[in-house]
Amino acid sequence: MNNIATQRIKREFKEVIKSEELAKCSIKVDLVGDSYTELKGEIAGPPDTPYEGGKFFLEIKVPETYPFNPPKVRFMTKIWHPNISSVTGAICLDILKDQWAAAMTLRTVLLSLQALMAAAEPDDPQDAVVAKQYKEYPEIFAKTASYWTNVYAGGPNKNTDFDSKIQRLKDMGIESDQARGALSTFNWDLERATEQLFS
Amino acid sequence: MLSVINPRFECSICLNCLKDPMLTRCGHRFCYECIHEWLKRQSQSCPIDSLPLSIDGLFPDNYTKREIYEQTVTCLNNGCDAVVPLLEVDEHYTSCKFNKNPINGISDNICPFHLIGCKDIVKNKNELLNHLVMGVHRHVTLLSKSHIDLMNKIQNKDNAHSKALEATQLWDANKDPNSEKALMSNLYERIVVLEQINIEKDKDIERLNQNNAMKDKDIEQLSQTVNNLIIELGQTQNAISLVTCNGVYVWRFENFTESLKLMKEKPLQTRYYTPGFYTSSAGYKVCGRINISTDNRNLSLFIHMMRGDYDDTLIWPFSGQITLSLIHPTNPIQNTCLKMQSSPESEAFRRCSFGNNGIEVPPINPRAFGYTEFITVDEVLQNGYIKNDTIVIKIIVECI
């Protein structure tokens, strides 16, 4: 990695470590190895959202050309959100693409992601299925997102109804992640989910 | 080790100290290289506020550049007290002797023979142990090689050192720190230094003397000014007393003998006047006059109306009572006192103003009112009116 990228990440690393957000356990960055090319981010689910109480981990890859090109960021923790792929964790956020500016830092990126979690943009979706549910069945969306937060990110809101539906599919030999995905996609309609899984 | 930079001097792209700072049209600073690199790669916009920006919109910010050149920081490493220019901080930290070198410590993934050239990379402790066991031969070779290098280096240094030593001995062979010569030369140096100090002190004294002289001059000027002010104050007080005397003027006519002689010699030309005084504040302005009568035997005493500051507001002709007294210095009974009323017909009580043809009339009414034969000269001389060659005349002008 070239000198400028490393130098910068080192400085940013210090910045995040010193930041208020770290003190409030809101965002965090860790090294993965010694190279400074790969980092692990952590965001707390913003309050008053279905993600509240969850801890979301991010994979951050710093390109050679950083900060002239944005870092590549992906959710490692599975999340139900219109702008984040429920399968791959890929993020649709303008500043990680064409709106990137060299003055932005890991800290601003993580804070922007936190803001994105609090205010989704369903008209510019990454995950069309989630976006559709968000627009058409906001209540189901909120329950699903909250449930995912509970299962994958350690959130507090359990949902026994959803659990039992998943158990039904597991009994049919379906893996739990797959079952959860299918049920979430079909607004927790067991019949349609089953139909899709076995078609 | 990284330093803390004043945010003003930080480039938002590399987060380092600005190198060849460039100022954008929108007022942000970046390193020359950073902002050019950014504009080359990405959309033509400012990295901070995303306003449109092209290379034409960049200017070298030499003011900030100079400021940065003047900044220095102290090395934060324990034991190092180097003060380095801000721009060279990173270079310093990479070479600072007092860096805590992580490579020297025990680490799980770096070969301890790293310093002498082992370039193998290991992933964990087990691999490291394995590497150490397997690489004994290589490590020994590296060690002996570095040992030979070190010996060579030491020898070179020794050679250089002995040459330098030889050179100094040739240069001043007699130099022995304990000898008298050394003492003399030390003393001589000391004398030179002291002389230097002495000269500087002399210069200081000279400068102080000059300062003193200047101060003295200032003081002289100031005392002159104070004197002038005192005189002015006296004049002002006199002027005020003439306004606030309420028409009573005590005329101490000094040098009487001399004046009398002059009056006798040229009875028509020699007249003495009092300064103008006012009958009240904002009243009529009048003055007294003394001269000798044409027969040279009597003193004449008159008053003149003068042009005053309040003439516009007064009623003309003047109407009132005038008392003229010659005061006896010891016996009040012998005071010569004469009273007279103003007469409206007399020219003497008219307002003294501008003439008909715009010709300015003198500030005194040429016509006087009083007594041509107020008292005989003989009486004045014989009846003890003169004290200290001074006679005292009291004039009272009252309005009615």
Automatic annotation (TrEMBL), chain A:
Provide the E.C. number(s) assigned to this enzyme.
Answer: 2.3.2.23
Q: Which UniProt keywords apply?
A: ATP-binding, Nucleotide-binding, Transferase, Ubl conjugation pathway
The record's Gene3D superfamilies line, in alphabetical order, gives:
DNA helicase RuvA subunit, C-terminal domain, Ubiquitin Conjugating Enzyme
Pfam families, per this entry?
UQ_con
SUPFAM superfamilies per record = UBA-like (SSF46934), UBC-like (SSF54495)
Q: Which residues form the UBA domain?
A: 161-199
Q: Which residues form the active site?
A: C92 (glycyl thioester intermediate)
The GO molecular function terms of this record are: ATP binding; ubiquitin conjugating enzyme activity
Q: Which CDD domains does the entry link to? A: UBA_II_E2_UBCD4 (cd14391), UBCc_UBE2K (cd23800)
Coiled coil located at which positions? none
InterPro entries assigned to the protein according to its UniProt record, in alphabetical order: UBA, UBA-like_sf, UBC, UBCD4_UBA, UBQ-conjugating_AS, UBQ-conjugating_enzyme/RWD
* UBC core domain ranges (all copies): 4-154
Q: Which domain of life is it from?
A: Eukaryota
What protein family is recorded?
Belongs to the ubiquitin-conjugating enzyme family.
This chain belongs to the protein called E2 ubiquitin-conjugating enzyme
UniProtKB/TrEMBL annotation, chain B:
Q: Name one Pfam family in it.
A: TRAF-mep_MATH
Coiled coil regions in record: 205-239
Note the SMART domains from the entry: MATH, RING
The record's PANTHER family line, in alphabetical order, gives:
TNF RECEPTOR ASSOCIATED FACTOR, TNF RECEPTOR-ASSOCIATED FACTOR 6
Q: Name one GO cellular component term.
A: cytoplasm
Tell me the protein's name. TNF receptor-associated factor 6-A-like
Keyword Nucleotide-binding on entry:
no
